[in-house]
Amino acid sequence: AQKITQTQPGMFVQEKEAVTLDCTYDTSDPSYGLFWYKQPSSGEMIFLIYQGSYDQQNATEGRYSLNFQKARKSANLVISASQLGDSAMYFCAMRPNFGNEKLTFGTGTRLTIIP
Amino acid sequence: ETGVTQTPRHLVMGMTNKKSLKCEQHLGHNAMYWYKQSAKKPLELMFVYNFKEQTENNSVPSRFSPECPNSSHLFLHLHTLQPEDSALYLCASRGGTSGGTDTQYFGPGTRLTVL
Questions:
Q1: Backbone region of residue A54 per phi and psi (left: phi > 0; alpha: psi in -120 to 50; beta: other values)
Q2: Local mean pLDDT, 10-residue blocks, chain A (115 residues)
Q3: What chain A residue is nearest to B6 in terms of C-alpha separation?
């Protein structure tokens, strides 16, 4: 079974600062994928970034980067130069690369960007 | 239309009503999912369809009945629901074959209120 832990229920960050959202995971699967999604108040779950467990380099997508530390089982999301539009819920999720389809989500972090 | 669409966006129904949620994906994907998001709980996987065949039922009560007539459309038929079924219902789709690292893309969700 997989488990995702997001220990920060809420964060307040000044606009233009960088922010790190924490995510730790637990799994017995040897191969898996890690995902981050953003959910604005409208409800849609927006895919941000993906990291494979065997990827040698940390994933980056524009202002988003994933700080992947496999030995510590952490996959923190880093948002550089935060913007007001970044205010939303952020969910970390994981899925085994083989076997069942289940994408396991954490409880999320509510990020608020302060002007 | 692009991506994953869901209708209706909002639904209020009584416990004796019968209603259906519709999801359509325009991404050419082969797998579709229903998730339930309740307040203060992680996203819960409900059903998975691969190539129109149901491959996972995550112990969902029979008052929720999915239907997948083709790879682009997914329905969730609702009958005799309970107030605790009030939640945001999210549809997602994924490309590729079962397993693998493909990302799931979500629709905007249907916010359901059961009176």
A1: alpha
A2: 93 97 94 94 92 93 96 97 97 86 90 97
A3: A44
